[in-house]
Write a structure and sequence with these properties.
CATH architecture of the largest domain: 3-Layer(aba) Sandwich
Number of domains: 3
Mean pLDDT: 89
CATH class of the largest domain: Alpha Beta
Low-confidence stretches: none
Strand content: 5-15%
Amino acid sequence: MSADKQVISVFNGEVYNHTSLEKLLVSKGRRYAEGSDGACLSEGFQFLGNSLIDLLDGMFAIAFWDTESLSLTLSRDHLGIKPLYYFFEKNLLIFSSEPKSILALRSSPTFTRSFKLNLNLGVIENLAHFMFAPGNDESFSNEIKQVAPGEILTFSEGGLKSAISSNSGLSQQNKISELTTAVDAVESELINSIGRHLVADVPIALALSGGIDSSLIAEISKTEFNRPLDSFCISFIDDQRSENLQAQLIAKQFCNSFKIVEIDSKLIAEDFDTHIRLFENLSTLDGGLISNALMAKSMARDGFKVALFGEGADEMFGGYTWFQLNEGIFKTFPLVIKKQIYMYAITRDPKLLLGIKTISSKNSFKNILEFIQNFEISAQLPQHLLKKVDSATMAASVEGRVPYLDGELYRLQTRIHSSLKSSMPKFGFLPDSSRTKPILRGVYSRRIGRPGEVPPSKKGFQLPLDTLTNMKLNEIQDLMTSTNSLSRVFLSPREFRGLQNLKKNELSDSDSWQLWRILILEKWNELIWIP
């Protein structure tokens, strides 16, 4: 609340530069309760209005209520780290960090206003194809909207006004085109970012996969700030895809402790109705949400309230093999073909490879790298990866922080020429994950590895979907034929019949991906939407 009680704020997240904002307010003679993020924000909004949002660096969802103008302003951080949803219809405005709060009010006997929610079939179809819903201003309901990353919405008697924070745009400075210069700049800013994310009055945990991104967080925390973190990794029982050994080596060098969280796919399958609650927001169908939630729960049991994650590094610095689509033989391919290959790579859906289904873009792009990075940062991050981290950690009352998405580091990467985020595929045409992310590999080799050493690639904390879908196959097929099935919305009759004829222990990778999406959508529909 501001000093004169005119502006009241509700805030979720962290603002890492609030100290500099406090100094600004004091220099202008503003009064507020020092040491309180909320008070600083309320006073700052009263003094600066929407311009305050341009100055904020952090992860946040904020609501400002002005008691004089009787207006409500909603805003969200520039990359969409923290979610913010709202319902606005016939002078009824509801906002929340989760759509399930709005969903619950539609049938609440204590809520005096009745309203209707309709399923957004376009979002359901996108979820079936992409594993997430690309639109960053919509949800599973036509009536429930999202505040888009960097967006500022103001509700008043005059209606709804929308603006975009100037902090959301790309840097117009000259591009960095030399690899050594980029490595130097990124290393320096990454150190600064991790330092900001280590500010906390409670112990901090680290999700450590053993890959480049989380390993650098571990090393820099210890080497630069003398803060060896307590690290956590995931292991899947009876599955050879776990990555404990590399993570354990890194932890031994740089961490205070190392804990392996063992996950049994059989137990997940048996208690699936409980785990489906993690997908209530229905923004992503990523099975990693379950494994990350189990890891966050283990962190919470051990007393941790804050945890660092490596999300964002791949999207900002070219960590996926599809960033190689501008090199080798792919240079000769038309842009439209490269887009189709990219869409297939992230979805495993043949319809996108063949161009039967496409996704439109509001922007035009000169090359495939610009298109890919725009989609990764504007869609994949806020709608998929960051929703996964936020939902998983918040379910355990742990605050998940993402140092690679610090505002200064993000603005720096916009100055780096796209060619430095690309790499050559093997033999000029085969995807090669050992060559991705050349800038961060340079930082890793400089700080952790030996000269000429190739840092390890990682798979992350992904669930073994093939194992789970094989266990749940009969149930999935039954759900598809139920009265309220959603599968017929996005499956052709031929696809439907093909999935119904599948047998256990005969599933291809493509079958497993498709069956997993159907399982999440059908169980969500049965347990969350219909009730």
